[in-house]
Design goal:
Arc Repressor Mutant, subunit A, 2 domains, 10 helices, elongated
Length: 195
Amino acid sequence: MKTEAPADPPSAPRRSDATRAAILDAARERFATDGYERATIRAIARDAGIDPSMVMRYYGNKEGLFTAACDIDLRIPQVSALPTQHIGAVLVAHFLERWEQDDVLTAVLRVGVTNAAGAERIRAIFPAQLGPIVAGVCPDPAEAPRRAALVASQILGMAMARYVLHLPPAVEMTREEVIAWLAPTVQRYLTAETP
């Protein structure tokens, strides 16, 4: 009777993977706390418990590190199965939840208004992730980029007012009030006929 050889134990993550993860975690925290301009490679390396040369080895420079640290999945829900008239409200509610749960999003927005690298991250993330959703629901898919930009203007505008600038009226509104105000506008951008 032939016996099978024992299976190899699952391999442990490579040390370089753990180092990269530690760098990215430290960078996200540092960019969220200090912003892009004040965050330094040395501070990020110290927070990660490694030598600054390792940060440079893996990410090249601060901009490369920022890009990797802010590789954000907006986790936009699939809306194709929803009744069309509810999509605006679902998207606004989703984005409010994302802004409230993810300091990295707020950090990217804060950096995006003062730094080219941050602005580029926002320009890359929103069209790539929001565009396909908009294309799937708008009357003319050729208009999807324009409509996605309009939706982003509402989402990013509220995020700026509520989570970055902390404008009292924007902060004081309940989530339900924000949804009630923004959802009809977002819905119009998504599904109304072209003016």
